């Protein structure tokens, strides 16, 4: 998510393909280095409720995640 | 006599012509350089449809992330309710002990669903961190989604970062109570068809 623009596609690829995974990792790190937060929308296994999972490392991303959403970190308004 | 003066003037003009031409060329060059240095203003052209398209994409993204009830709530009422995660037990009627109302570009409001008691406002924003001097902000639905993701994934962190105020600083308590009433009515109407089955 980018202020003034909304959703912007940063990178896409199949993490099972090595070159594509490297590209995804590189973009993931770049976004976090810029100070963005990363979250993956998931479904709670217990109650089926939709929620987000914050990820701080590439390895934190659930294997079945279809996307990672980067958004500016929250600050006091 | 007149003829002699005209001839002298003509000779003077011819002699000074190279100097005049050189001065004109230098003036032209200076003018070209000045125009090039100022150039066209380095401003992004305003696209009146960009914000609308961004909001449309943001709504689709929000819809794909939250559950059906939350999406319908946002579509119909303009806000989303998220249950607080720190309650040790749920209040009566399966309701959470406390919950948040998420509005676009407005503070998050904490309240007690069982009693309707308003607890506090949490002022939080998601500014552009690229360091650009801009007043641009997230589309409304992206702002709601960012708050939703932050609250459902790490409630403590977003609440710690927010500025907490008593209710009434930015949001009108009367409007909040009206929204809670609208939410209760909305839920009642949604439950009606199910109970009739």
Can you characterise this structure?
The complex is a heterodimer of chains A (77) and B (197). The longest helix of chain A has 16 residues, at 18-33. In chain A, strands 2-1-3 form a 3-stranded antiparallel sheet, with helices on one face. The mean pLDDT of chain A is 90. Chain A has one domain (18-72). Chain A is α+β, with helices and mostly antiparallel strands and 77 residues long. Chain A has one helix spanning 18-33, and strands spanning 36-43, 50-54, 69-72, 75-76. Chain A is globular. The two termini of chain A are 18 Å apart. Chain B has 197 residues and is α+β, with helices and mostly antiparallel strands. Chain B is 55% helix and 13% strand. In chain B, strand 2 (99-102) and strand 3 (108-112) form a beta hairpin. The termini of chain B are far apart. Chains A and B meet through strand 1, strand 2, strand 3 and strand 4 of A and helix 2, strand 4, helix 4 and helix 5 of B. Strand 4 (75-76) of chain A pairs antiparallel with strand 4 (117-125) of chain B.
TL;DR of this structure?
The complex is a heterodimer of chains A (77) and B (197). Chain A has 77 residues and is of the alpha+beta class.
Could you state the order of secondary-structure elements of chain B as H and E?
Answer: HHHEEEEHHEH
Low-confidence residue ranges of chain B: none
What distance lies between the first and last C-alpha atoms of chain A, to the nearest angstrom?
18 Å
Biggest interface and which pair forms it? Answer: A-B, 27 and 41 residues
Strand elements of chain A, count: 4
- How much of the sequence of chain A is in beta strands? 15-25%
What structural category characterises the helix and strand content of chain A?
alpha+beta
DSSP strand tally of chain B:
5
| Rg of chain B (CA only) | 33 Å
Number of domains of chain A: 1
**Largest sheet data of chain A:** 3 strands, antiparallel
Q: What's the helix count of chain A?
A: 1
């Amino acid at each position: 998510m980018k202020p003034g623009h909304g959703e912007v596609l940063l990178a896409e690829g199949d993490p099972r393909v090595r070159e594509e995974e490297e590209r995804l990792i590189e973009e993931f790190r770049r976004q976090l280095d810029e100070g963005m937060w990363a979250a993956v929308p998931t479904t709670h296994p217990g109650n089926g409720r939709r929620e987000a999972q914050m990820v701080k490392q590439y390895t934190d991303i659930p294997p079945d995640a279809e996307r990672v959403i980067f958004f500016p970190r929250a600050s006091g308004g | 006599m007149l003829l002699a003066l005209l001839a002298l003037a003509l000779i003077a003009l011819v002699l000074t012509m190279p100097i005049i031409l050189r001065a004109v060329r230098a003036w032209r060059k200076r003018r070209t350089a000045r125009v090039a240095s100022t150039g066209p203003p380095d401003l992004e052209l305003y696209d009146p449809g960009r914000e609308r398209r961004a909001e449309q994409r943001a709504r689709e993204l929000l819809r794909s992330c939250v559950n059906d009830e939350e999406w319908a709530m946002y579509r119909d009422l303009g806000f989303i309710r998220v249950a607080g995660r720190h309650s040790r037990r749920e209040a009566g009627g399966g309701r959470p002990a406390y919950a948040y109302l998420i509005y676009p570009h407005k503070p998050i409001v904490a309240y007690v669903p069982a009693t309707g008691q308003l607890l506090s406002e949490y002022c939080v924003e998601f500014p552009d961190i690229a360091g650009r001097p801009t007043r641009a902000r997230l589309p409304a639905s992206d702002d709601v989604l960012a708050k939703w993701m932050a609250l459902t994934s790490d409630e403590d962190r977003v609440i710690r970062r927010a500025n907490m105020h008593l209710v009434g600083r930015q949001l009108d308590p009367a409007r909040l109570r009206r929204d809670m009433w609208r939410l209760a009515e909305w839920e009642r109407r949604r439950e009606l068809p199910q109970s009739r089955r």
